[in-house]
Amino acid sequence: MPERVLLIGVYGMELVECGGALAANAAAGGQSFATLMLCRERMRADVSKAADVLGVEVDFLGFRNGYVAVDEEHKRALVRAIRTVRPTIIITQDPEHSLADLDPDRRPAMTLILEALGLASRDFAADDGLEPHAVPTIYYMTPSRPNCVVDIASHWEQKVAAMELLESQMEFSGRHWSEQLTPADLEALVPGFAALDSDLERGRAVHRALDKAVHIYHGIGHHGRYAFAEAYRREGDFHLPTLIR
């Protein structure tokens, strides 16, 4: 069923990490949106290209790295985004995962997101000229304890292509893994790794291997029905008219 899906992300790569579900919704006739808090200028161009591949409309809030706060200014920005899109489904980071994640800003961002979800349907910031919007269904991405998976096999190549467009992220990943893993481990992970001549290509190659393994694990590797799957945790109970397979 087509929906209005809004990803509220902290960083740019989250758009691609949820890219399978977002692309599947767009392909089904729905509308997929992403509102991103932190995304540096160079990364914005990459993310915009990736969003085009996935059929996602992206908006950058322009928050400052290291200065995300649960204050009126930040709450207003997120509430405005929710009221503008008026989604039926929201995807955002997992509260459990974000608590122990050492990426800066994730912990205040999670509290900010939950506050904004609560305020969007109330009379907070009524002077923004937008009607309140009731809290929709919420899914947490890359959760510590998933309770559902989404079939993304038909959109796997789109997701790979979108990830490879995040060139600044791929360059960072290439440098990081080259420092963290031994040459033997890197060669086992990506045969021919030593012959790759740039951080960009090294990052792309390891991401291809890593992302494929993760999505197969949540698909057929986890006694599932799908070749490739994205894992999510739905907030609250599932309300079903009848039992489903």
Automatic annotation (TrEMBL):
SUPFAM superfamilies: LmbE-like. It comes from the Bacteria. InterPro entries: LmbE-like_dom_sf. This is GlcNAc-PI de-N-acetylase. It comes from Nonomuraea turkmeniaca. The lineage of its organism: Bacteria, Bacillati, Actinomycetota, Actinomycetes, Streptosporangiales.
